Amino acid sequence: MLSNIFFLLFLTLTVQARKWIVPGALWYDTTGAKIDAHGAGMWKVCSTYYLTGSSYASSMQPRTYSSTDLTNWVNRGIQFPIPNMFRPKMFYTGDRYWIFGQVNRTVQSLWSHTPIGGWHNGTDMLDPHNSTTNFGITDQGVFADTDGKVYYLASADHNNLQVNIIRPNGTVGEIIGDISGAYEAPGCFKVDGTYFIVTSNKTAYAPNPDKVFWATDLHGPWNGPQDIAPESTNTYNSQNTYDLVVEGSERTTYVYTGDEWTIEGDPRSNYVWLPMSVDGTNVTLQYHPIWRVDVRTGEISTPEPGRWYKAPRASPCNSPVTFTNVKGTGAMRWVSFYYTVSDPTAGDAQISINGAAAANISTYNSRAGYSEVVPVGLKLKRGRNSIEVSCTGYSNFTVSLKGIEVHDDY
Ligand SMILES: *[C@@H]1O[C@H](CO)[C@@H](O)[C@H](O)[C@H]1NC(C)=O
Ligand SMILES: *[C@@H]1O[C@H](CO)[C@@H](O)[C@H](O)[C@H]1NC(C)=O
Ligand SMILES: *[C@@H]1O[C@H](CO)[C@@H](O)[C@H](O)[C@H]1NC(C)=O
Ligand SMILES: *[C@@H]1O[C@H](CO)[C@@H](O)[C@H](O)[C@H]1NC(C)=O
Ligand SMILES: *[C@@H]1O[C@H](CO)[C@@H](O)[C@H](O)[C@H]1NC(C)=O
Ligand SMILES: *[C@@H]1O[C@H](CO)[C@@H](O)[C@H](O)[C@H]1NC(C)=O
Ligand SMILES: *[C@@H]1O[C@H](CO)[C@@H](O)[C@H](O)[C@H]1NC(C)=O
Ligand SMILES: *[C@@H]1O[C@H](CO)[C@@H](O)[C@H](O)[C@H]1NC(C)=O
């Protein structure tokens, strides 16, 4: 226990705490390693959030992180040695914690008396369907209602998104509601008396415009679908995985959490988390390049404007554009690049700091198409820095750079 405390203290002292959520940016845990929990879900115990997802760097075994502020996450390790577990979701029902994950197109349960460690294999591969229909399932979700009852959201292979009861003994019970169509990756949240299901189309690892359905009863009838973001953004380049309710002292904030998959679906995939506005039955993602939610009050904030450096030229493609005398402190900070690209698939914009390659922002380039602001976490040395933006790509790849905004914090 004491060594744990020293260990945590050590982490706090050596790794810079992170203040902001930056959709699509690299997200590191408290040791500085890239967070590796894809298709994840969240479960809150007292004031701790547990994020359990599929570790794409470790054979897709279930990995859990914990946090008390939703921005700084401690890696709590692989929870059970079971490979190829997709979209694991941790929750509590009956007298124990459960992780339900998709293995071989059916659901495998794990259980434990604590949220971290002590996991046991569930006795069987649970089939959420009856023996007559016997559908396989893909890209599942879990929803806990305000009355404590828990539901399994199965996006069935046969193009029927189903709401199933999860019994207190951790088995999947009957189907109580369904939505017909080719949907997957469902999440559900409740606002007053209305249930919302956020779900994506089935386009493998390519993003698509995710939809929302709504009903006043989980049995349905389900209304919708409606887009949750402007269609052309493909859900800001992401796919739903879990929809979080942050009930604060001042307000309740609904948070969409999604995966920004690489097209290969590999460990380089990032995360897009955004607050949702809910106006009647109109649910829309509120895009902020940099934001946070205060878990105590539920309030959302965005950073103060940073220091602005205007680009001396718009195009970094024939020769690099250099920003000189950029002030740093030796700590990490968010630097927002204001630029647009002609075609995100046709090239890469790149960044170097003081002559050393710092980041490829290629995976961020698609974002430049719709928000024009791409924040990148960079360490600038104390004093003056030189930031250079260059570009490589096909001849039709053009970049129009306005400038950079250097924020004070990270
Ligand atoms: C999943 O299927 C593969 C290949 O059929 C098999 O090797 C593996 O043991 C199965 N995994 C589980 C958890 O049943
Ligand atoms: C867990 O159960 C699954 C299916 O019942 C089985 O394939 C797998 O080998 C078990 N894993 C362990 C570590 O017991
Ligand atoms: C199983 O599914 C079939 C086909 O939908 C249905 O007729 C039957 O009533 C179901 N059985 C149970 C036990 O739910
Ligand atoms: C779980 O509960 C259901 C309904 O009460 C029962 O039919 C089933 O046998 C139980 N399964 C296990 C594994 O305890
Ligand atoms: C999913 O996307 C495909 C291709 O864009 C489209 O044809 C189909 O209608 C969509 N399915 C649903 C259920 O929206
Ligand atoms: C839904 O909300 C968004 C954002 O607040 C707004 O732009 C849009 O017009 C609304 N749609 C409807 C149908 O009210
Ligand atoms: C950027 O991408 C290029 C080409 O894929 C690669 O050679 C280079 O190492 C990358 N740079 C950084 C800083 O990741
Ligand atoms: C740019 O060029 C590439 C390679 O020739 C091509 O695949 C892409 O479609 C072009 N983009 C546009 C917007 O014309």
From TrEMBL:
<protein>
    <submittedName>
        <fullName>Arabinanase/levansucrase/invertase</fullName>
    </submittedName>
</protein>
<dbReference type="InterPro" id="IPR023296">
    <property type="entry name" value="Glyco_hydro_beta-prop_sf"/>
</dbReference>
<dbReference type="InterPro" id="IPR006710">
    <property type="entry name" value="Glyco_hydro_43"/>
</dbReference>
<dbReference type="Pfam" id="PF04616">
    <property type="entry name" value="Glyco_hydro_43"/>
</dbReference>
<feature type="signal peptide">
    <location>
        <begin position="1"/>
        <end position="17"/>
    </location>
</feature>
<comment type="similarity">
    <text>Belongs to the glycosyl hydrolase 43 family.</text>
</comment>
<keyword id="KW-0732">Signal</keyword>
<keyword id="KW-0378">Hydrolase</keyword>
<keyword id="KW-0326">Glycosidase</keyword>
<dbReference type="GO" id="GO:0004553">
    <property type="term" value="F:hydrolase activity, hydrolyzing O-glycosyl compounds"/>
</dbReference>
<dbReference type="GO" id="GO:0005975">
    <property type="term" value="P:carbohydrate metabolic process"/>
</dbReference>
